[in-house]
Each structure stands twice: as C-alpha cells, then as structure tokens.
Write a structure and sequence with these properties.
Elements: H1 19-32, H2 37-43, H3 50-61, H4 72-85, E1 88-92, H5 95-103, E2 109-111, E3 113-117, H6 120-125, H7 132-152, E4 164-166, E5 172-174, H8 178-183, E6 186-188, E7 198-202, H9 208-216, H10 224-227, E8 232-236, E9 241-243, H11 255-268, H12 280-285, H13 300-308, H14 310-313
Helix pairs in contact: 2-3
The protein binds a DNA duplex (21 and 21 nucleotides) through helix 2, helix 3 and helix 7.
Length: about 325
DNA sequence: AAACTACACAACCGCAATGGT
DNA sequence: TACCATTGCGGTTGTGTAGTT
C-alpha cells in the first residue's frame, strides 16, 4: 500500500490555465496571501490541486516576475552559476574513508555515496524576477544546445575557469590525468538526493577478505544481512561531503562560489560534523561495505553496468588523492 | 497551402524535506 | 516516535507557435 497522492487524479482540472482561473487565483492570493495551497485552491473555487496552484503562482502570476527574453548579462550569470551549482556530483567521503580508499588503491572498487543535483532555485535566486523553471527551461533548450554545438567544433575549455569540460548534459567532467586514467576507480552511485539529505559514512574499514571480494566484484548485497551488517555513522551530507569541484577548482574560486559557500556554511553550522576516527584496528574489524546497509540492495554487476553508461563514465576517471 | 520540424515554455510528476499532531 | 499533509525541488513531458521544406 503506497502513500496517497498529493494531487488526486479525479475531479480536478489539468493542463493549461484559463484566464478565469488565473484571475481567481491571483485575486484570492492578493486578498489572503500565499500558503496552504490545497486549502487555497478549494477556497478560491479552483478545481486545481494545490501543487498546480502554487506552480502557476510562482512561475507565472506572481507580480514580481520579469517578462521578456533573457538578457546577455543574465545569460552569462546563468552560465557561471550553472558551472558552480549545476548538475554537480557530490560524493560523501569522510577523511577516514579517503584514507581507506587510498589503501584500496589497486582494487577495482571505490564505494561512495554520490549526490547529483542542480540547484536551479539557487541560480534563480540570483536573477531577480526569474523563476527556477524559466532558467531550467532556458538552460535545457538554449544553452545546452549551444554547449553541444561548441563541443562539436572542439572548442577547448577555458583554463581560467575549471579544469573540466562541460558536456552536453551539463555534467562537469574532470580532465583525465594519466593517474586518473590508470586508477580505474569505480564509484557506486546512489539515488540522487538533495544536498541536505543524510548519508552514511563508514566508521570502520573492510576486513581483508571483503576487500578481496570487492576487488573481485563478488560481493553481492543480497546477502548483506549476514555479511554487511555493521556500524554506520550518519552525518549530514554537506559535512561529510566533498564537492567534486574542489578537486579541480580554479584555485581561489570565484566570488560567486565563495559567496555560495558562505551561505552553505551558515546553513550547515547547526550540524557540526562528527569526527570519524580511523585506525588500523578499524581496518581489521571492517565487516561491511561502507555504503551499503539493510535496505540498499545493490547488485555490483548492475551498478557496473550503470557506470559503463556515458552519463556516469566520468566517475571512473576521478582521481581521489588523499 | 499543407506537412513537417524545431523551439520555447507551461505544466506535470515523483521524490524528499519539513512541520504539525 | 510515527504518521501524515504540505511544501519545495528538479527532471520530464506536452503543447502551441514559428520557421522550413
């Protein structure tokens, strides 16, 4: 039995909004304010679900929305912000985990909890009057196409920005160093989540036999009840997370990035990172795959297949230096 | 003029976070 | 603490329109 849908399918209008619906919604919000959207839609006499009302208001009816084409300045800002915030891959790696990874050099597997996201709302927040939806659409239609066109004519990446390439999908790909290519690291990707979500960081390191299994790709999580139970520390994602950008950043970083990081610092202060101790004993006592637990039924073969896809191919070439 | 294609953007969907009870 | 409704977000789809053949 699943959760009841937030928007009931029956009895509600869908599709394009009519002028009358717009008028009803706008006048109701003008009189009573935003919020309580499902209630609002009923009270306003709209046969729309609350989510639809909210979206219509935020993306179209709000009085402070800026109409018209994206200006050159706005476009440049979007591109810059997207480089900073867009389609990032975050990997949660505690310091101890990085040490463990370095010990696993030579093996085929590096497991990590990865997070993919693009903060359209953050980008929109820096463009007054523009909505996240608008910017997202603009990126997906105009800018991505342009990036593709540039890539096809072999435009070299700018040295002054990042040591990475923007691919068609907007995913940032690190340049391949000889070391990185040699390392052949495989990264286990988990489901995309938001940056504030909690992730699991290993507190212990794998026993030698499991390391061997990892190397041979034999460790299957279907039996993880027996083989993969163990201590898992939960910390806030941002605290245990290293943003890949930092691995190939432009050194000092832009003002925008610094500003963004400041914001994050404020946001994250409430959840100070728990230090994760690491020592040899932990390495010996490790009995679990660090990023798997009871509900994370993962099949390494399936994941390896996933990682062979273009979308995730860049993960194989990341060179994690401790 | 009709058919087809590309484009732009509004709207939907599913998921996760959050807050109230 | 668990449950549920609400809110917010990002990815995707649908659709109207302009341009091209």
């Amino acid at each position: 039995m699943g959760r009841s849908p937030s928007c009931p399918k029956e009895g509600l209008n869908k599709g394009a909004w009519t002028a009358l619906e717009d008028k009803l919604l706008a006048s109701y919000i003008k009189a009573h304010g935003e919020g309580k959207w499902s209630d609002l839609s009923r009270r306003a006499g709209l046969k729309r679900c609350g989510k639809s009302c909210r979206l219509r208001w935020l993306n179209y009816l709000r009085p402070d929305i800026k109409r018209g084409n994206i200006s050159r300045d706005e476009e440049e800002l979007i591109i810059r912000l997207h480089n900073l915030l867009g389609n990032r891959l975050l990997i949660s790696l505690s310091p101890s985990f990085l040490q463990w990874e370095s010990k696993l050099r030579g093996t085929e597997f590096l497991t990590a909890h990865c997070v993919r996201l693009c903060r359209w709302s953050l980008i929109a927040g820096r463009l007054p009057g523009r909505t996240d939806n608008e910017i997202k659409n603009y990126w997906n239609t105009v800018l991505r196409k342009r990036a593709k066109a540039q890539a096809s004519i072999g435009t070299p990446p700018s040295k002054s920005t990042h040591k990475m390439l923007s691919t068609e999908s907007g995913v940032c790909e690190p340049l391949r160093s000889p070391q990185a290519t040699k390392a052949k690291i495989k990264v286990i990707l988990t489901k995309a989540t938001r940056s504030s979500s909690k992730v699991r960081i290993p507190t212990q390191l794998p026993a030698a036999q499991h390391t061997d299994k990892l190397r041979d790709g034999q460790l299957n999580s279907t039996n993880n009840n027996q083989e993969m139970s163990g201590d898992i520390a939960t910390v806030e994602a941002h605290n245990g997370t290293q943003v890949l950008d930092s691995l190939y950043s432009d050194g000092g970083g832009s003002d925008l990035l610094n500003e963004q990081l400041k914001e994050r610092d404020v946001e994250f202060e409430e959840n100070p990172m728990q230090p994760l101790a690491f020592d040899e004993a932990m390495f010996k006592n490790w009995t679990v795959n660090p990023c798997l637990n009871g509900n994370d039924a993962m099949d390494f073969d399936s994941l390896a297949f996933l990682l062979e896809t273009d979308e995730y191919s860049f993960c194989r070439n990341i060179n994690f230096q401790t």
